[in-house]
């Protein structure tokens, strides 16, 4: 597959220095930017999927009339997290 380039961006020298200061050993600024972009893409996809699931749940609740109290949901999540962390110890 043929590769392509991401448009270059102009930044203040201080900002570039900050980026270079956090590079790991052997890491290039280009690889750092590529990783940051890939993580941002993943984060945006997860956010959109989360919102889509929430909207679908809202529509389902409106359609069925079945709603759950926030306190009950929080309690169930806390119980699940408690079981998960206990199992990992």
Structural class: mainly alpha
Tell me the number of structural domains.
Answer: 1
Counted beta strands = 0
Strand percentage = under 5%
Q: Count the helices. How many? A: 3
Helical content, roughly? over 70%
Mean pLDDT: 93
Q: What is the C-alpha radius of gyration, as a whole number of Å?
A: 22 Å
Major sheet description: none
What form results from the Cα inertia axes? elongated
Instruction: Give the SSE string.
Output: HHH
Low-confidence stretches: none
Distance between the termini: 45 Å
Task: Supply the key terms.
single chain, 89 residues, mainly alpha, elongated
Explain this structure.
The protein has 89 residues and is an all-alpha fold. 72% of the residues lie in helices and 0% in strands. The protein contains 3 helices and no strands.
């Amino acid at each position: 597959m043929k590769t392509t380039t991401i448009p270059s961006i102009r930044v203040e020298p201080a900002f570039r220095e900050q980026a270079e200061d956090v590079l790991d050993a052997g890491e290039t600024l280009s690889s750092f930017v590529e990783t940051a972009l890939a993580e941002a893409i993943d984060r945006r996809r997860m956010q959109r999927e989360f919102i889509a699931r929430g909207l679908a749940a809202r529509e389902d609740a409106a359609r069925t009339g079945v709603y759950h109290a926030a306190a009950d949901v929080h309690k169930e999540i806390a119980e699940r997290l408690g079981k998960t962390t206990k199992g990992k110890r």
